[in-house]
Design goal:
Number of helices: 11
CATH architecture of the largest domain: 2-Layer Sandwich
Number of strands: 10
CATH topology of the largest domain: Tetrahydropterin Synthase, Chain A
CATH superfamily of the largest domain: Elongation factor Ts, dimerisation domain
Radius of gyration: 24 Å
Helix content: 40-55%
CATH class of the largest domain: Alpha Beta
Distance between the termini: 50 Å
Structural class: alpha+beta
């Protein structure tokens, strides 16, 4: 049957797919719009499977808080190229998924992927459909949710990197500027944990082994290796845990000391740092 330009345009309005893709889908479905829509969605799945080995090292981090800034939410969606990361539909979908995350507070990344967005289809299904339109692999790669008396969100590097900082013990003080400073430091200095006791045991073991081997290569006595390694571990804590890092705007104090100057009870209870680029 003949497919009219009006039919093609109608399917484009329904799906956002390209003219030729819509015409082909309608031809194959013999003018049946529901079947044509299904065909276009399947195309997205085929592209996902065909490009499964393609690296997704670009994308956008979407970050926000709830209305009273007691909860923060972060969603990262990766794609293959920066060109697609700037695509209007890509950005629109990411914002819609973030808004749904704030509304429903899913329990983890996989739950977010299955959360209904817009027309009832899951976030993952929408991403797959957009792959069919654009022809590039995309993936929801991160979802973070933190809570506190005050949560500060921060976007860096053209939305390639996002940070959430959750603070407790605010006691009515305005900590917005302080929170932003700390978030910017987290973005730049890449701490891996909040404090010494929060560092994973396997990471500590690795750092100790490296420190011992370095000392051994320098010719230090075997009996001294453990002590030397522990000394280097203290340096590691200062560089890699946010509370023990020196404040970049005033290196005479650590972040922990900075918090105490504002209020003795003020503390960071959690932070998240996500980047879509390697």
């Amino acid at each position: 049957m003949a497919i009219s330009a009006q039919d093609v345009n109608k399917l484009r309005q329904m799906t956002g797919a390209g003219v030729m893709d819509c015409k082909k889908a309608l031809d194959e479905a013999q003018g049946n719009f529901e079947e044509a829509v299904v065909s276009l969605r399947k195309k997205g799945q085929k592209i996902s499977e065909k490009r499964a080995d393609m690296e997704v090292n670009e994308g956008i981090v979407f970050v926000s808080t709830n209305a009273d800034q007691t909860q923060g939410f972060l969603v990262a969606i990766n794609c293959e190229t920066d060109f697609v990361a700037k695509n209007e539909e890509f950005v629109k979908l990411g914002n819609a998924i973030l808004a749904k995350a704030i509304e429903t507070q899913p329990n983890g990344l996989e739950a977010l992927k299955q959360t209904p967005v817009l027309d009832g289809r899951s976030a993952a299904e929408h991403v797959t459909e957009l792959m069919g339109k654009i022809g590039e692999r995309m993936e929801i790669t991160a979802y973070e949710h933190v809570k506190g008396d005050k949560v500060i969100s921060y976007i860096h590097l053209g939305a390639k990197l996002g940070v959430l900082v959750a603070m407790d013990g605010v006691n009515g003080k305005d900590v917005s500027e302080l929170g932003k400073d700390i978030a910017m430091q987290i973005a730049a200095m890449k701490p891996i944990a909040l404090d010494k006791e929060d560092v994973d045991a396997s990471v500590l073991a690795k750092e100790l082994d490296i420190a011992k081997e370095q000392a051994r290569q320098e010719g230090k006595p075997e009996a001294m290796l453990e002590k030397i390694a522990q000394g280097k571990l203290n340096k590691f804590y200062k560089e890699s845990t946010i509370l023990n890092q020196e404040f970049v705007k005033d290196n005479s104090k650590t972040i922990a000391q900075l918090l105490k100057e504002v209020d003795a009870n003020l503390k960071i209870n959690a932070f998240k740092r996500i980047s879509v680029t390697k």
